[in-house]
Amino acid sequence: MATVFHSVSTHVLEINGVEQSADHRTYTFIDNDFPELLPLDLPDVLLTVEETRHYGISGLDDREEWASSAAYGFGYLRLGEEKRRFALSMWHQLHCLRTIRLAMEGHHDTGMRGHMQHCLTYLRQMILCHPDLTLEPADMLTRNYEIKRVGATHVCKDWSKVYEEMERNVNATTSRNSDRLSTAKVGN
């Protein structure tokens, strides 16, 4: 049975677990034979940056709110006939933010320092890799964030489509029972 990825300008067809992109390149997902990017065309969306009471550091609901940013399947998807496991950088970045928040909350041990250093380096590199050129007023140090809660509007990619694709992929490539078992064993 064939599964079809459909997007606005890119079509990816998966037949027997082997994906074929619009340029007719077929990938086996064995060794280094896989695309650099997940073939998912994301439309632009506007995001106005706002201060929020959510996603804090140490409030009662903060851990649950940060955990809600994790992907279905915990950021891993399976591609190709052998259902090879891959991670998406977006989920790695969000994982790093959750790790830094946990350390700021006081949950750290000797192994956490190396993990945090990795996360800080990784986030720095990802910001440099995808620079956002939106102009923002330079009032960060004088601004009263309790009163002036809205910042600049940014043009972003629709990340909700990535969440949808992750759920679709996990459902299509894992049995319901094994997925439930692995979900129950992995905590955030």
From TrEMBL:
**Which GO terms of type biological process are on file?**
mycotoxin biosynthetic process
Q: In which pathway does it act?
A: Mycotoxin biosynthesis
Give the transmembrane ranges.
none
The molecular function terms in GO held by this entry are: oxidoreductase activity
Keywords of this protein's UniProt record, alphabetized?
Answer: Oxidoreductase
Q: Which family is annotated? A: Belongs to the ustYa family.
Tell me the protein's name. Uncharacterized protein
Species, as recorded: Guyanagaster necrorhizus
